[in-house]
TrEMBL record:
Entry's Gene Ontology molecular function annotations: ATP binding; ATP hydrolysis activity; copper ion binding; P-type divalent copper transporter activity; P-type monovalent copper transporter activity
GO cellular component: plasma membrane
EC assignment: 7.2.2.8
HMA domain mapped to chain residues: 1-54, 798-861
Protein name per Swiss-Prot or TrEMBL: Copper-exporting P-type ATPase
Catalytic activity annotation: Cu(+)(in) + ATP + H2O = Cu(+)(out) + ADP + phosphate + H(+)
Organism: Candidatus Thiodiazotropha endoloripes
Length: 864
């Protein structure tokens, strides 16, 4: 595939296959993602359309083990190994071929290696599959090498011929021996054209067979007509109309030289673009040290199983997702979650494959494998976004579909006009104009403008902890004017703690036990805090039956036969229960102090009140400030009580706040804003947020939130920082701006280049654009689009690290952070007490940051 016309042809062919419901074709990556239909039938449909196609295979066969041995005399020890394999697993299947042992066994791979080591053998597993990303990189390198070779040959022949003509070292066609000389030149040029441009001519023939046209058609017509017309002049030098006409053999090969040079540069730039996903794949190591009863051994990650015990030493990468079982360490998750500071990990904490163990030794059990790992999910979402097309891209496809036929008509019209009314010799002018129009027209630049920017933008977003599900989400995020955010878990830490407990009609311990039993099966952020409080109190939790979640109101279930209901003030009103005066006074006082209230009702009788407080996230103020600087108005919508929500909004400078909302009321807030002509985004992390997320123009899900919220979101934020929303909006705007720049450049180039090539300026300039110069312009137009898109790889704010001394408590951390956030140009500030560091993002200079910390009463110096 070379241009948008090719993409359209391939999509039509795939969609015509029985059973196919969806097809997305990516020009940059030369991939197609197809839903439905037979894979073999889809591949054959693409081949029948005139393009090459094969199925991508990237999964290893974990049932088939391949073992290689060092310093082993296979002939003498083959029998001994067969006996050993049979003894270890009587049901095992094994075969020795291609210098490797191939085993089918139920033994754990690590146990097999350890047993072999005990028997004195040095063995290791051989990966049984090829990395598709490595194969793509190798194929791209070969393609670039071929382009250089083709360009070099065509350039040497073309330039040599042009210089010979300019210096008068070539004979006239009509001179003695001239015809033979030029016939030899024609044959040489034909062979060069076959080597340097054969794929263009084959592609054009295939398009002709299917009554279609693409960039290959334009190149084949342009260079082919130049060579053929020159050959006719050589064969009929005495023809009246042909006398004095110019030969175009040099142009026919030089055009290909410049095109191949441009193609090589373009492919090289595309490969740089594709490296973003490849770098994500390369984050996770391919080997893992597995701990078994007999010892530890290293095996490929592809052979791990859920529950395997893995050991990582300081400096090692975490090979797979898991949960810490033993050891304490700090782990650098910056490449995956954006946390610039290492995170402390201890037993029970999760680990993400691809992160780096910085200090202590850890042992952890594997919790997720293959496509279920965090890194695999990130790569999948990036791939999906890159394969999708935004609205602006679909418009370009419609224009590109008619581009080539229109260019051919313009070239033919230019040829006829110059042939009929042009100066002498008319055929030379007609050929020059016609060939130049065919060569200068560039559907490739139009076709690349959108997908190349989407590819770079979504890859860069993933590196900055923003996973964009599809390019429509990218485009809608760039237009946002309002952002609706939930309070709990979004603006606050999402890890509230029970600070006060009130009981009535039941002993406090019994009331807490009943409440905890119901909350144990709830996914609400407050549930975990209640359970944690019960754990610290040593209260055991009973089993619950008949559990129901009343969205936005509360939960209920039966515990030991008793109906237990928990929820906020709205739930209490629905149950038509009025609190006693002591309860009411306590509730009013706690609400005034921004406490969240959970009422406990047992068998229809109000029995308890739990008060929870959830502190603000350290970066919430910076996030709100950054969004407001982008022209986005932030609105809080929460199911929490009015006073708690108002307190949070006031502390963050948010003007609009809605409290005690049900899910459908959050939905109505979003709809109301949209009806006023606003573009509305929604950030949430819970089941209650799913309807509003789906209604919003752009839905943002916190990566640590529930699966339901993530499923309904257009953009998932890896980690839990609201600053990532600002990042998502910023890079979305930059990507759409880049697409518009690319399209503007491509359209202007064609609108100016095609008329110029047709000779529109001849009355003013007195000359026509030579076809070889047209080919240079055409090649550079595509390269320019790719290079411009690659600027997105460097998107992001400047980061400065400060060493801060004098901090002794969390209060000091807050003081330093507030001082830094008040500095103009600061978007984000993360302060770590233990490390004594502050990582600041934004355009502010290091000197002003240091001065702000000093003015706050602490010592500071810049480390970067």
């Amino acid at each position: 595939m070379t241009c948008a016309s090719c993409v359209a042809a391939v999509e039509r062919a795939i969609n015509a296959v029985p059973g196919v419901t969806q097809a997305a074709v990516n020009l940059v990556e030369k991939r197609a993602q197809v839903v439905g239909g037979s894979p073999q039938a889809v591949a054959q449909a693409v081949i029948d359309q005139g393009y090459g196609a094969y199925l991508l295979e990237s999964q290893a066969d974990s049932n088939q083990l391949q073992l290689g041995f060092q310093a082993l005399d296979q002939a003498t020890q083959q029998v001994a190994l067969e006996r050993l394999f049979s003894r270890l697993d009587p049901q095992a299947g094994f075969e020795f071929r291609d210098a490797l042992w191939h085993l089918q066994t139920s033994l754990h791979p690590a146990d097999l290696l350890l047993e072999l080591e005990q028997q004195g053998y040095q063995a290791s597993f051989i990966e049984s599959y090829n990395d598709p990303y490595a194969e793509e990189a190798s194929a791209a390198a070969k393609e670039i090498r071929r382009s250089w070779q083709r360009a070099a040959l065509a350039g040497v022949v073309g330039i040599g011929l042009m210089v010979a003509e300019m210096t008068g070292n070539t004979p006239q066609v009509t001179a003695p021996g001239g015809q033979s000389y030029w016939l030899a030149v024609a044959i040489i040029c034909f062979l060069v054209m076959r080597f340097s441009g054969g794929h263009y001519y084959l592609g054009a023939l295939k398009q002709l067979k299917h009554r279609s046209a693409n960039m290959d058609t334009l190149i084949a017509l342009g260079t082919g007509s130049a060579w053929l017309s020159s050959l006719i002049i050589v064969l009929q030098p005495e023809g009246m109309i042909l006398q004095g006409e110019k030969l175009y053999f040099d142009a026919s090969v030089l055009i290909l030289a410049f095109l191949q040079l441009g193609h090589g540069l373009e492919t090289r730039a595309k490969r740089t673009t594709s490296e973003a996903v490849g770098s994500l794949v390369g984050l996770a190591p391919k080997q893992a040290e597995v701990v078994r009863d007999q010892g530890s051994v290293t095996i490929p990650v592809s052979l791990l199983a859920i529950g395997d015990l893995i050991q990582v030493r300081p400096g090692d990468k975490i090979p797979i997702d898991g949960e810490v079982v033993e050891g304490v360490s700090s782990v650098d998750e910056a490449m995956l979650t954006g946390e610039s500071l290492p995170q402390k990990k201890q037993p029970g904490d999760p680990l993400i494959g691809g992160s780096v163990n910085r200090s202590g030794q850890l042992r952890f059990k594997v919790t997720r494998l293959g496509e279920e790992t965090t890194l695999a999910h990130i790569i999948t979402m990036v791939r999906q976004a890159q394969m999708s097309k935004p609205e602006i891209g679909r418009l370009v496809d419609r224009v590109s579909a008619i581009f080539v036929p229109v260019v051919v008509l313009i070239a033919f019209a230019a040829f006829l006009v110059w042939l009929l009314v042009g100066p002498t010799p008319p055929l030379s002018y007609a050929l020059t104009a016609g060939i130049a129009v065919l060569v200068i027209a560039c559907p490739c630049a139009l076709g690349l403008a959108t997908p190349i920017a989407i590819m770079v933008g979504t890859s860069r977003a993933a590196q900055m902890n923003v996973l964009i599900r599809n390019s429509d989400g990218l485009q809608s995020a760039s237009r946002l004017t309002h952002l609706v955010v939930d309070k709990t878990g979004t603006l606050t830490q999402g890890a509230p703690k029970v600070t006060d407990v009130y009981a009535e009609n039941l002993p406090e311990a019994e009331m807490l036990a009943l409440a905890g039993a119901v909350e144990a099966v709830s996914s609400h952020p407050l549930a975990e805090a209640i359970l944690d409080h019960l754990k610290r109190q040593g209260i055991e939790i009973a089993a619950v039956t008949d559990f129901h979640n009343h969205e936005g109101l509360g939960v209920e279930g039966r515990v030991a036969g008793k109906l237990v209901q928990l929820g906020g003030s709205q739930y209490l009103k629905q149950l038509k229960i009025t609190p006693s005066e002591p309860f009411l006074n306590a509730a009013n006082q706690q609400s005034a102090e921004a406490g969240s209230l959970v009422w406990v009702v047992v068998e229809g009788q109000l029995s308890g009140l739990l008060v929870l407080r959830d502190p603000l996230r350290s970066d919430s103020a910076a996030a709100v400030k950054s969004l407001q600087n982008q022209g986005v108005e932030v609105i809080v919508c929460s199911g929490d009580n009015h006073r708690a929500v108002e307190a949070v909004a006031a502390s963050l400078g948010i003007k609009q706040a809605h409290s005690e909302l049900l899910p459908e009321q959050k939905l109505e807030v979003v709809r109301s804003l949209q009806q006023q002509g606003n573009r509305v985004g929604m950030v949430g992390d819970g089941v209650n947020d799913a309807p509003a997320l789906a209604q919003a123009d752009t839905g943002f899900a916190i990566g640590s939130g529930t699966d339901v919220a993530i499923e309904h979101a257009d953009i998932t934020l890896v980690g839990d920082s609201l600053l990532n929303v600002s990042t998502a909006i910023g890079i979305s705007r930059a990507t759409i701006r880049n697409i518009k720049q690319n399209l503007f450049g491509a359209f202007v180039y064609n609108m100016i280049g095609i008329p110029m090539a047709a000779g529109l300026l001849y009355p003013v300039t007195g000359w026509l654009l030579p076809p070889m110069f047209a080919s240079v312009a055409m090649a550079m137009s595509s390269v320019t689009v790719v290079v411009n898109a690659n600027r997105l790889r460097f998107y992001g704010p400047m980061t400065t690290t400060l060493k801060v001394t004098g901090m002794t408590c969390p209060h000091c951390v807050n003081n330093v952070q507030k001082a830094l956030l008040d500095v103009p140009g600061v978007d984000r500030a993360e302060v770590a007490l233990e490390e004594g560091t502050a990582v600041v993002s934004g355009s502010a200079q290091a000197a002003s940051l240091v001065q702000a910390v000093v003015d706050a009463g602490y010592a500071a110096e810049s480390e970067s």
